[in-house]
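User: I'm preparing a small set of examples for a lab meeting where we compare how different chains pack in three dimensions. I only have the primary sequence for this one, and I'd like the structure in token form so I can line it up with the others. Please keep the answer compact; I'll paste it straight into my notes.
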Amino acid sequence: MWQPVLFGLGQKERRHTPYMVQPEYRIYEMNKRLQSRTEDSDNLWWDAFATEFFEDDATLTLSFCLEDGPKRYTIGRTLIPRYFSTVFEGGVTDLYYILKHSKESYHNSSITVDCDQCAMVTQHGKPMFTKVCTEGRLILEFTFDDLMRIKTWHFTIRQYRELVPRSILAMHAQDPQVLDQLSKNITRMGLTNFTLNYLRLCVILEPMQELMSRHKTYNLSPRDCLKTCLFQKWQRMVAPPAEPTRQPTTKRRKRKNSTSSTSNSSAGNTANSTGSKKKTPAANLSLSSQVPGLGAIPTCSLNPGRDGDLCHSAAVTPSGQFKEKH
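Assistant: Understood. Below is the structure token output for the 326-residue chain.
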């Protein structure tokens, strides 16, 4: 006799398909992964981090304004792991993101998260113990699948604050040099000098990704890789644009009935009246059999006639011979 099976606390129910999670939960998982970083984390660890949370064709964009004007840096997937590692190389011991009042919009193959009140919080251990809160707008685009990885990351920085504990100020209250050092900012728009220098370097490295990839794939010299890339780019520039495919029209064109202007075109009228689609070649027609009497067929010649006309008529005898008539 069959009995129902109840899943208790000691038993786990199997899931046949992975369940979808909220996009904000993916940021929470990324924060936990960043907290599990150690000082011994190498490039392989950062590559695994980027593979888990970013698509293969993902892009990361940072927009902010410095003293010399607005800046905008966009890096590709191969440079994203190094970007996060430079944050910690600049003296940061902890990094996490806080999203407040974010809006989600679902599309066919992606999910967009727009958070106007995003805060990137970094804890600095050197040159002094400081907490930096970088506020701005974060727009994320996730792929709508089981992995739910980030496809585009755009963080626009508006303002930042550097917080120093009061206990440190009290310890160095009698030291003017230390107080003067504590009053200076250790970041620029919430980013360390290591990160800013790397973003400037990415302006040069990003266009060279195609050369590096070709060198790694085909084992070509740098000069040959450059020649090949330039030749392919030139081919794309001079190639004509592809014409859009046009759907064939289904309208049928009406056939116009042509009327004969001559008196001896009875063969063509007979073919039109019967509705036959095949046309008899002119070489198989016998003028003697089609025309019992004499007929006048207008012909044109390059030699002018007696009156100076280029066109004259020729009479056809019953035997099929032409007799010119002017």
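A couple of notes for your slides: The first strand starts at residue 54 and ends at 66. Strands lie at 54-66, 69-75, 92-100, 103-106, 110-124, 130-143, 150-163, 295-300, 311-316, 322-325.

User: Perfect, thanks.
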